[in-house]
Amino acid sequence: MYDLIPLVEAWLEQEGFSVSVLANRVEGVKKTGFLSSEKVTVFLEDYIGLCSVKIQGQSNACTGLAEHLKSLPTKTPRIDRETIIKEREIVTIPCPYCRTLVSVTERKCPNCGAYIKG
């Protein structure tokens, strides 16, 4: 999915669209007249071994983008079953002495050396 986002963005820009990317959504807007514009929205979703692409809009650009994406070579993903991805949030608090942001797991401030109460 993350390989496709820049390709979709580049294709839309080449077609004259102003592009914005937010997470897994790419939006393109192109002025066609004084009060009119074309809008294309592309949603990308990752699944194991494949990527789903949904294109919304009311223009020929949707068809052109779909044809462009179909013409791209497909890659065979390497799935490493030993890899475990863990997410964690790192919370920081200001040191009471020097106000440097310190991880809540730290016992000493790395800036001033003061002990942090836990």
Can you describe this structure?
- By secondary structure, the chain is of the alpha+beta class.
- It has two domains: about 70 residues, Kinase associated domain 1, KA1 (TATA-Binding Protein, 2-Layer Sandwich), CATH 3.30.310; about 30 residues, no CATH class.
- The protein has two helices and six strands, in the order αββββαββ.
- The chain has a four-stranded antiparallel sheet with strand order 1-2-3-4, with helices on one face.
- The protein is elongated.
- The model has no long low-confidence stretch (mean pLDDT about 80).
SSE layout and pairing:
Blueprint: H1 4-14, E1 18-22, E2 25-31, E3 37-47, E4 50-57, H2 60-71, E5 92-94, E6 101-103
Antiparallel strand pairs: 1-2, 2-3, 3-4, 5-6
Produce a short descriptive summary.
Helices cover 19% and strands 31% of the residues. β3 and β4 form a beta hairpin.
Overall geometry comes to elongated
For this structure, the CATH topology of the largest domain is TATA-Binding Protein
CATH class of the largest domain: Alpha Beta
Largest sheet, in brief, is: 4 strands, antiparallel
Q: What fraction strand?
A: 25-35%
Question: What portion of residues is helical?
Answer: 10-25%
Structural class comes to alpha+beta
User: Ends: how far apart?
Assistant: 41 Å
Looking at the overall shape, the CATH architecture of the largest domain is 2-Layer Sandwich
H/E element sequence: HEEEEHEE
Number of strands: 6
| Model regions low in confidence, pLDDT < 50 over at least 5 residues | none
User: Would you identify the CATH H-level superfamily of the largest domain?
Assistant: Kinase associated domain 1, KA1
Strand order across the biggest sheet? 1-2-3-4
- Summed up, the domain count is 2
Mean pLDDT: 80
- The Cα radius of gyration reads 23 Å
Number of helices: 2
